[in-house]
Amino acid sequence: MGQAENQPIAIEPGLFEWLAGYPDSLPDWMSIKELQEAGYNIKPNYKPFVREEELHDRQESAEQFYMRSFYLAQSVIRSTADSGEPFC
Question: Is the pTM of this model over 0.70?
Fold first, then answer.
């Protein structure tokens, strides 16, 4: 098994698609514990840039979706540039 397969997965809710397709509520996502019990190598102490709670009960325009995506990309770039560590 290569190094990539050993890297834990960082769960980042901000990567979710445009919220316009979910006018009533978001899908029910598996919890970190459920994912780990299913055999996924999840990074349990990862702090997302966009919390799941920030996505709930929210109407999002196309512009807001692009801004969320831009913010997330910039945050990941800054965090890896500052620390020299990989994102996950």
Answer: yes
